[in-house]
Design goal:
A five-stranded antiparallel β-sheet has the order 9-5-6-15-14, with no helix packed on it. The protein has a three-stranded antiparallel β-sheet with strand order 10-11-12, with no helix packed on it. A two-stranded antiparallel ribbon has the order 1-2. Helix content is 26%, strand content 33%. Helix 1 runs antiparallel to helix 2. It has two domains: 102 residues, no CATH class; 123 residues, no CATH class. 27% of the residues are buried. The radius of gyration is 24 Å and the shape is elongated. It is built from two helices and 18 strands. By secondary structure, it is an alpha+beta fold. The two termini are 21 Å apart.
Length: 236
């Protein structure tokens, strides 16, 4: 394969990754707390001794869109939504993680957990416990959780020290090497944040990526035909 073929192949590989990311965004249009992703392309230029420089495109970096999504009012006692930057801090099997999905329920032990069983952690990093005899649970906008009028925990908002270091693990769960507590974040009880995926924009992007991939495939097919023709001519 010549330089043009390698260049086209790296571009096709990046477009395929972007198509997978866009398809995943569309599949999570209705997933509460989901954050859309995009692909960042980088260019690597290599100087050649006896020929023009060679440019390679790589689409191997995902960018997470942290913009605020809409809020659905559910009225659920343990449904929480963040208004502003930040994430809820949860404890998973692989350590602490971040999420914007605030559909929590009390476990058999009285701890608030996600649908996957990950424990919600408070501002100090301890599990949030609901007293078994509590009749009324209230969460104020600053995250203070009260049982029958008595404060029992304070749910905090957390974020990565470097937003670009945020890594998508699975579903609505993210991790970062360093996290920090955040101020000026409002926690709303009885609400869930929706996905921040814009369906029209994602579908338009999918069509754009698909057309770009088809153009690249046509170029590679034409190059293959040209090289076959050259080989057949020289072999006569």
């Amino acid at each position: 394969m010549d330089a043009a073929g390698y260049t086209a192949l790296t571009r096709q590989s990046g477009l395929m990754r972007e198509m997978q990311v866009v398809a995943n965004n569309i599949a999570n249009l209705s997933t509460n707390g989901f954050r859309r992703e995009g692909v960042i392309f980088s260019e690597h230029v290599t100087r050649m001794e006896d020929s023009p420089s060679l440019s390679m495109a790589r689409g191997n970096t995902r960018l997470i869109d942290l913009s605020q999504a809409g809020l659905d009012q559910t009225g659920g006692t343990f449904d929480l939504a963040l208004q502003g930057e930040g994430f809820f801090l949860i404890e998973t099997a692989n350590g602490q993680a971040l999420t914007r999905a605030g559909a929590f329920t009390p476990s058999a032990e009285g701890e608030l957990v996600t649908p996957d069983g990950n424990r919600l952690l408070d501002q100090g990093g301890a599990p949030v416990f609901i007293p078994p005899t509590a009749q009324k649970i209230a969460v104020s906008e600053d995250g203070t959780l009260s049982a029958d009028g008595q404060p029992v925990a304070r749910i905090g908002a957390w974020g990565p020290v470097d937003p670009l270091a945020l890594q998508h693990q699975t579903g609505t769960v993210f991790t970062a090497a360093e996290i920090q507590p955040l101020d000026d974040v409002t926690i709303l009880q009885g609400f869930l944040e929706t996905s921040n995926v814009e369906p029209v924009s994602e579908i338009a992007r999918m069509i754009e990526v698909q057309r770009a991939y088809e153009m690249g495939q046509k170029f590679m097919d034409a190059e293959d035909s040209r090289m076959r023709g050259v080989i057949q001519t020289l072999g006569r």
